[in-house]
Amino acid sequence: MEQAIIDYLDKFEEKLRKALLKLATDRKALDGKLLESDDLKDFWHRIEPNYMADAVPQIASYPTVSVAWALYLGFGAAFYWDADWATYSNTAYETFYGDLGFDNMDDHIVRDILMLPLDSDEAKKLVSLVQSLAQETVDMIRHEQIEPQSKMAFYAFARACDAMFAIGAAIQLKRMGYKFEKIDNR
Question: Is the pTM higher than 0.90?
């Protein structure tokens, strides 16, 4: 891939991450910082090809779903990271499927992994947040005016999914009490 294309995609992803971080911070789901873990990044890169195989065919009919489910995967992976990463680090991507496969991955992650009743206020708040973040992502992709179904559209979509997974993991880490703290190295 040409360096100019890589640079463009890097700028697009950085702009998207900043916009999503701001939106999540405005909604009190984050504190202006993206909580991250190399373990979770590595996990995403391992399952991303399987996710893309499921998500790409959904783009035309369900664009927000196709990016939102990456965020839900971030929730689930971060939950597992905190619970027992030695056990869950090699979890198969399909473990995140709901009883209808990819189609209800969101409900499965919220209900069965995060253990939130789907009709609870907390679950409804999370769903609303995910919908807002997914719509922002789709809007930003469209704003780029990339030719649909082109290689560039695929690369931009993949970068958007990277950002959504990272935001989902960060939100879940914050929900579990993780935060940045200044360490005094006296």
Answer: yes
